[in-house]
Amino acid sequence: MMRDVPPVIGHRGAAALAPENTLAGFRAAARLGVRMVEFDAKLSADGVPLLMHDDTLDRTTNGRGPVREAPWAALADLDAGGWFGPDFAGERIPTLTQALDTCCELGLAANVEIKPCPGRAAETATAVAETIRQVWPGDRTPPLVSSFSMDALEVARETAPWAPRGVLRETPATDWDVLSRSLEPATVHLNWRAVTATVVAALSARSLPVLVYTVNDAGTARRLFGMGVGGVFTDDPDAVMPVVPEGA
Q1: pTM
Q2: Among the options 11, 115, 157, 165, which is catalytic?
Q3: Catalytic residue, candidates 53, 169, 222, 223
Q4: Is 11 a catalytic residue?
Q5: Structure confidence by residue, pLDDT tens digits, 184-197
């Protein structure tokens, strides 16, 4: 069981306040007092772990085409901030190493979501695990490693058994006992729309804290905290931090 996940986790940094999956987003989250950020990791064509949610570059950069076909040298100079607003023009795609270093600099805990391009689950999980091993200080709690890909989580378990794992699902599963035995997760991450008090109680009974995504309003956050969820992923930490239960 992972006991030190804070109740508010910045989603892709702080995606309502700064371009997602950028160092600017981490800094925006830290300025608000957020203690943990979540971000997505995938690989360039030549195997460099980098931060990106989509399989293509089009939505969040001035590049075009699949991420998996672009070498890091071509990705490093892309603008990953101008699409969000002129104040962020010139913001770059971070490598996973840069992201982890910045988390340490800002005192942020990290949730690295393994977001592999199609067919690269094992390769991506291995690269993420190795990067964390090389970069993250041994005296700090290791990043939480999560994924929708069970293949990626199985590889993470083998290559980084010291890193807590989070199982991502759109809807609650009926096979939590099987998943618990095979993956030994520390947390379960669910779409907030699928969460009920019954689901939270059932997972809590298995010592599995429930983290929910993506919650951007105080009313929903208050209701979910009332059900006993362990934390919420949010694009807008300012909106949900006021309703965090006292002592959480």
Answers
A1: 0.96
A2: 11
A3: 53
A4: yes
A5: 999 999 999 999 99
